[in-house]
Amino acid sequence: MPEPKIILQLPIEDRSSLSAFVEKCLLEKASLIAIVGNGCAETEDEIDGLIVGDGADDSRFITTTSHPDETLEEVIEFASWWGDADAPTRVIRL
To answer: CA dist 94 to 46, 57, 81, Å?
Structure first.
């Protein structure tokens, strides 16, 4: 099964759900989390921290990108070209 590509559309209404979202992406073996919207660079840093944790588990890896000056449609197009073209792309709001 192809690894899913996830687009996280900001703003996040419930910041407490971010950790569970990242863990779900890791379980699903997502290949990409692309973040779009105001504050996306800061949210990318936060997600990177949640993925890496203390750095002891090198199997915890997902490529993250932030897209501060792009529309959702542009990020969807970017994700469609990322990795496996047959992998599903999902837009998520938290």
So the answer is: 14, 26, 24
What pLDDT digit, counting tens, does each position of 42-76 carry? Answer: 999 999 999 998 889 989 999 999 999 999 999 99
> What are the DSSP calls for 2-64, one per residue?
PPPEEEEESPPS-GGGHHHHHHHHHHTT-SEEEEESTTHHHHHHHHHHHHHTTS--TT---EE
pLDDT at 2: 84
Task: Report which secondary-structure segment, H or E, holds 90.
Answer: strand 89-92
Q: What is the mean pLDDT of the chain?
A: 95
Q: How far apart are CA 83 and CA 42, in angstroms?
A: 24
Q: Say whether pTM exceeds 0.90.
A: yes
Helix (H/G/I), strand (E/B), else coil: 1? coil
Identify the structural domains of the chain with CATH numbers, from first to last. Answer: 5-92 (3.40.50)
Helix axes 18-27, 40-52, angle to 10 degrees: 60
